[in-house]
Amino acid sequence: MRPHLVSWFDGGGRGTGGGSCEVLALLHDAAKQQLLVAGNDGVIRVFAVPSYELLGAHKGHSEAVTCLALDGNFVFSGSEDTSVGVWNSVSASYKGTRLKSLEGHSRAVTAVAVLPDSGVVL
Prior knowledge:
Elements: E1 23-29, E2 34-39, E3 43-48, E4 54-59, E5 65-71, E6 74-79, E7 84-88, E8 100-102
Antiparallel strand pairs: 1-2, 2-3, 3-4, 5-6, 6-7, 7-8
WD repeats: 58-88
Keywords: Repeat, WD repeat
InterPro entries: WD40/YVTN_repeat-like_dom_sf, WD40_repeat_dom_sf, WD40_rpt
C-alpha cells in the first residue's frame, strides 16, 4: 500500500468529534491496530485502524498532552501539566485513570521515550 493522507477529523462522528481539539501527538500501535491521538484538551483518544472508530479515551492530564510513547502494554504521555502519565494499553474500555503519574519536572514535558526492555522512561 502506498502512503496516503486520510482526512477523518471532519466532526461527523469521526476523529475528535468536533474539531475543537488541536492535535499535538499521534501514536500508531501496529500490533493492536490502533491510533492514539492527544491534544490540547488533555485527553488521549484511542481509535481502531482502519475504521477510525473511537474505542475510548484516557483522561487524567489537566493540561495539553504533548507527546506519546509506547512500550509493551503501557502508553506514556507527556503533558504541559509537567507530568508523565502511565496508562494501560490493553484496557477493554480505555476509560481507566492513570496507572501512575511521574512527577518532578518543573516545566512542560514535550518529549518522552522508553528504553526497550528496561522500563527506563526518558
